[in-house]
Amino acid sequence: MTRPLTGEPLALDLVNSVWVDQGRRLDQFDEPHGLENWLADHGMSGTTADSTAVRTALLRARSALRSALDDGDDGPLNDVLAHGFHRPGLRDGAPVVATVTDDPAWLPAWTAAADLVRLLAERPDRVRHCANAACVLWFYDVSKNGSRRWCSMEVCGNRAKTARFQKSHPRR
Ligand SMILES: [Zn+2]
What we know:
With 172 residues, this protein is of the alpha+beta class. It is 43% helix and 17% strand. The chain contains 6 helices and 6 strands. Strands 1-2 form a two-stranded antiparallel ribbon. Strands 3-4 form a two-stranded antiparallel sheet. A hairpin with a 2-residue loop joins strand 1 and strand 2 (24-27).
């Protein structure tokens, strides 16, 4: 079973690396090559850090993102973000921003955690939980009128439509 790819921003895509399929909680990082695939999907496969340490840091960041989003608890996310910072500078006269972490293993995790701060600075009202209460996925609504309700129309949107239809057309 592969994860439904939602194409969400980095922070939410890390959050969404845990999902529920038919009542079962699945974790991309438990799958063979799950970590490598996730890093490659986000252009971060170049890390020379130990993959166990990278995985541990990502799991910390994921649970911190969940605490911030699900429970409104900022503490764990701030702890993750304490492992790095952005350092603006110039290269040949052009502006550059480097990401500096205290350990290279923290780079993917820190980058994902910082991405949520960016989203919340940009459009806090657009960072939303899927309207299907049984779904654990989050999304960033970039639609013009902000009317998106589902992680994916194909999965949760259609499920809701079917449920509504069955309610209004009871079988005899
Ligand atoms: Zn959903």
